[in-house]
Amino acid sequence: MRKSMLVLAAFVIVFACKKNETAPAETSTQSTSTTATTVTTAAPPPAQPTQTTASAAPTAGAIAGADGETPGMHVEITELKRASGGTVNLKYVLTNGGAKTFSVYSMLGDAYDGNGVNLVDPVNKKKYFVITDSEKNCQCSRHIAGSLGAGEKFNLWAKFPAPPPDVTKVSIEIPHFQPIDDVPISQ
After folding, report:
1. Closest CA to 143 of 108, 118, 170
2. What 3-state DSSP class applies to 60?
3. Phi, psi at 157, each rounded to 5°
4. Residues 88, 160: contact at Cβ < 8 Å?
C-alpha cells in the first residue's frame, strides 16, 4: 500500500507539474490572441470622406473681412477711402476657399450690380446706398459674369456718399456675408 501511495503521489506530482507547465502556455496563447485582437480592434477606423477646401491666400492689405453663408466663401475689404466730391470708395475681394464653383450672380444676388451693398454709419444711425447715375446705373462693379472656382478671387468696388467727417468707422453689409463692423475710413 505504501508503494501504491508513492506511485499515486508521484503520479499526482507529475500530473500537477504538467498541468502547471501547460497552464502558462495556454495563458500565453490567450494573451497573444487577446493582444492580436486588441491590435486589430485598436486600428483607426477608415477616414470618412470630407469636403476638401482649396487654399486661398489672404488678400494683401486687407483691412477687414467676413465669412459667407456658404462654406468657404469669404470677403475681404481692401480699401474704404474718402474721395473727392464727398464720396467714399469701397474696394473688396470675394474669395472662394471652398471646393465648389459658384456663379458670382447667384452668390451675390441683389449685390450683383452693387445693389444691396451698404455702409452703415453707427454714430448717426444712417444707411448709405451705392451712388447711381442719372440712368439709375450704380457706380460700382457691374455686369460681372462668370464663375468663381475653387481658390479664385474676384475684385469688386462701389462708390458711396461720404458720411460726415466725424464718422471714422462704419459697418459694411454685403448680402450673404456676415456684417463687417468697425471698418476704418481712410483719408
Report:
1. 108
2. coil
3. -150, 160
4. yes
Encoded amino acid at 127, one letter:
K
Residue type, 145: A
Q: Which is nearest to 116 in space by CA: 140, 97, 135?
A: 140
The sign of the torsion formed by the CA atoms of 161, 167, 168, 170 equals: negative
Residue-wise pLDDT for 122-176, tens only, equals 999 999 999 999 998 889 887 676 788 999 998 999 999 999 999 999 999 998 8
91: closest CA among 123, 54, 117, 70? 117
Note the pTM of the prediction, 2 decimals: 0.66
State pLDDT tens for residues 47-103.
332 233 344 556 678 999 999 988 899 999 999 999 999 999 999 999 999 998 887
